[in-house]
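Q: C-alpha cells for this one, please.
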Amino acid sequence: MKTGAKAVRRKDMLIVEDERVIADGYGDLFADQGYSVRIAATGNAAVREFERKRPDVVFLDIMLPDGNGYDVCRKMRELDSFVPIVFSTALDGPGDIERGLEAGGDDYVLKTDSDRVRIARVARAVARYDAFMARRAATAGATEIRIGSVTVDTARLTIVGGRKRGEMLTRTEADILSLLDTDRTKVFSVEEIVSGIRGEGFACNDNIIYVHMFHIREKLGKAASDRIVNVHRTGYQLKP
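A: Here is the predicted structure, written as C-alpha cells:
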C-alpha cells in the first residue's frame, strides 16, 4: 500500500444458515468478493450477532432450526430499519417472497440461483443502502413528503404527521414514495418504479409492487392512501 493511502473498509456480512457446508460455501464466496464474513447457525444466534455488531448486510436463510427467517428479520428490523437484508430461500412461491418483503427484507435469492446472481443481488442491496444513507445525509431536514393530511419523513422512515404518526415504513416503501413524489402529474409504470428504486435489470413482478403499494396505503391511512392511484394497466401516481 502506498504511504498515505486510505485503507478501504471491508463490508461486514452476517450469513444466517444452519447447514454448515452451505454456510461455509457462502462464506468463501462472499469473502472472495471482499466481504468480512460472520456466520450464525440459528435465528437466536443471528439476532445476538446483529445486536452485538451491526453488519453492512444480512444474508438470511428462511428455514432455521429454531424458527424461521421471517421472524428473525422482524426482530432485526426492531433494532435497525436500514441494514439491507437479503433472503436466501428454496421457497419460490409468490406468497413466500411476499412474506419476506412484508417482514422487512430488501431482496431475495433462490437457492437454485447461480453464485453470480447471489453476488449481484447482495451487491445491489448494499449499493442501495449506501445510496440511501448518502441521500439521507445530503438531504437532512428536507426529506418530508406531504400526502393529504399525512407527513412522511423518508429519511427516518417514519410518518411524522397525521393520525398515523409514528408508523414505520420500510426503506423500499420510502423509496417508492420518494420516486412518485418527483412528479405528481406522472403515472409511473411498474418497470419505472423497479428501475427507479433498485436499478435496471432487477427481477420483480407486478404482484410484488402491488404488495408494497398495499402496505404503503395501509400505513398511510385512508385520508392519504386515496392520493395513491392505480391506473389500470399503466401504473401508479401520487396525486397532488
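A few notes: The first strand starts at residue 12 and ends at 16. The radius of gyration is 19 Å.
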